[in-house]
Specification:
This protein has six helices and two strands. It has about 200 residues and is mainly α. Among the domains are: about 60 residues, no CATH class; about 60 residues, DnaJ domain (Helix Hairpins, Orthogonal Bundle). It has a two-stranded antiparallel sheet with strand order 1-2. Helix 4 crosses helix 6 and helix 5 runs antiparallel to helix 6. The protein is elongated, with a radius of gyration of 40 Å.
Length: about 200
């Protein structure tokens, strides 16, 4: 390879003399400091988005003495902190209607049914009504109910109570370690799982 080739001279990279030179960093804003101000510091309240440029030593001093709330009273500080929880946006009380008036009576606690159980916080169901009528049991679900010695329309609470009683009855620990009733226990557990997955309990 010849070093004095015309092609070799064309691919050589040379700095562009016309390119603008890098701008120098601004001077530190601290009084009588000539160091470059490479570090930003916020100007303060009511000057959001504006910064002062300091050198490393003076930015540390500035940050130690910086107080966003300087010049504000305690009440104004508390109001600002409270408003900052909602992003300084207005809020309204929950449950108010379009006219701004609150309802005449506030319900106290959850309304009770005749049997003493709660009807729910929103009064969705009338007295004595269930949330939704239970669907008719399918063949496997009927067999599962029969395995647990229950009728086709047994309520969920009865299914749970019967399951607990049967598990206590057939568990080997309750029978002195006798494993003769393990198959029956397995059938009861499988029947209960099926009923639970089907939404019967």
């Amino acid at each position: 390879m010849k070093l004095d080739s015309k092609y070799f001279d064309k691919i050589r990279v040379r700095p562009d003399r016309d390119a603008p030179k890098k701008t120098a960093a601004p001077v530190c804003c601290w009084d009588k400091c000539e160091e470059p101000g490479l570090y930003k510091a916020p100007r303060g309240r009511d000057h959001e988005g504006q910064y002062l440029q300091f050198c490393v030593d003076h930015v540390r001093l500035y940050n130690k003495s910086y107080n966003y709330f300087s010049g504000l009273g305690d009440e104004d500080i508390q109001k600002y902190l409270k408003d900052s929880l909602t992003g300084n946006r207005p809020t309204w009380t929950m449950g108010s209607n379009s006219s701004g008036a609150m309802p005449a009576e506030k319900p106290t606690g959850r309304p009770k049914r005749a049997n003493g159980r709660s009807r729910g916080a929103f009064n969705l169901f009338a007295d004595g009504e269930a949330a939704a009528p239970r669907r008719k049991a399918r063949t496997l679900e009927v067999k599962a109910l029969q395995t647990m010695d229950l009728g086709d329309n047994a309520p969920a609470e009865a299914i749970r109570l019967r399951y607990k009683a049967l598990v206590k009855q057939y568990h080997p620990d309750a029978n002195g370690g006798d494993r003769g009733s393990e198959d029956r226990l397995r059938e009861v557990i499988q029947a209960y799982k099926l009923l639970k997955q089907s939404g019967f309990c």
